[in-house]
Task: structure prediction
Amino acid sequence: MRNTDEPLALLETDDEWIRSRTGIEARRWVGPGESTGDLAVRAGQRALRSAGVAKVDLVVVSTTTPDHHSPATAPWVAAQLGLGTVPAFDIAAACSGFVYAVAAGDAWIRAGAAETVLLIGAETLSTITDMADRGTAVVFADGAGAVVLRRGTADEAGAVLAAQLGSDGTQKDLAVIAAGGARWPDTRLAAGHGARCLRMQGPQMFAHAVRRMTEVSRSSLAAVGWEAEDVEAFVGHQANQRILDKVADLVGVRPSARLGNIREVGNTSSASIPLVMDDVVRQKSVGAGARALLTAFGGGAVWGAVAMTWPDIPPVS
Ligand code: UT7
Result:
């Protein structure tokens, strides 16, 4: 991974603007030749080691930046992890991808289709960022994080108690990579064309993110019968510190329960929630069984929240 200063040297921006408008102070991008799949494999290895698991029944990779349009990234990742011919698929739910992945993994387990599931959020947003667009070039970053979900009981640490998801396709232009898909195939574009990059309507996205994450957080709390002040660990998608503060204020989450690392890693889309979880596990800052609320909003538009208890997992190097 490399730091992000050099390619941004010519952009009309400054550290103070970025820090005060987003909360970001540092980010990482992959080096040449490194892909989303590579990051996913590294995160997956650590999650499997931490869980003490050598075999799973399903691998899900949530990503906006798959290694290829087709095939999905997950089968390759599963093979690299030595997981054999396990079912494996990608989830494309932009910055809500990890919350969607948790909901999908939980549903597979509840349906009896799996006992143990590996969920990975992995992104190389640097590969879809226009370095001349200051609305996106100063926020997006690369990274990956992973968790292992296994069948258990509701009173065990790490239990997923409620997962709520939503979407509004009428807002698809809030954050879009216009070209490269079937509506505007790559083959009709000159190399390096800007339509291959992610374009975001920042302020509009901000407003929708606050509204949807607040709504879905409230309804998820209601679903499990918790009050906002009961929440001991609140992990929102790390898009912008001002969004996170607003959502936590509106929902009524205690300041001491608000967890995040946007300052150190920027916006890593579907990797952002598992990256925060990894930090918390390393710092041992949340006890096993604590009441936790995860929430995210992303392009699509898509959003979701998960109410769960904090897992009991040892940190690994
Ligand atoms: O991950 C998926 C979910 N993501 C989100 O929800 C992201 C939501 N949006 C945001 O986080 C923010 O909208 C941004 C960080 C993208 C932009 O921040 P903002 O406070 O909404 O800025 P803005 O676009 O309203 O622009 C305010 C001013 C403008 O200047 P004028 O017109 O007031 O003179 C911009 O031209 O700031 C200017 N500006 C910048 N200045 C320095 C915009 N970007 C930059 C920049 N550096 N990088």
The pocket of oxa(dethia)-CoA is lined by residues 13, 17, 21-22, 95, 134-135, 138-139, 202-203, 205-206, 209, 239-240, 243, 267, 269, 297-298 (CB under 6 Å).
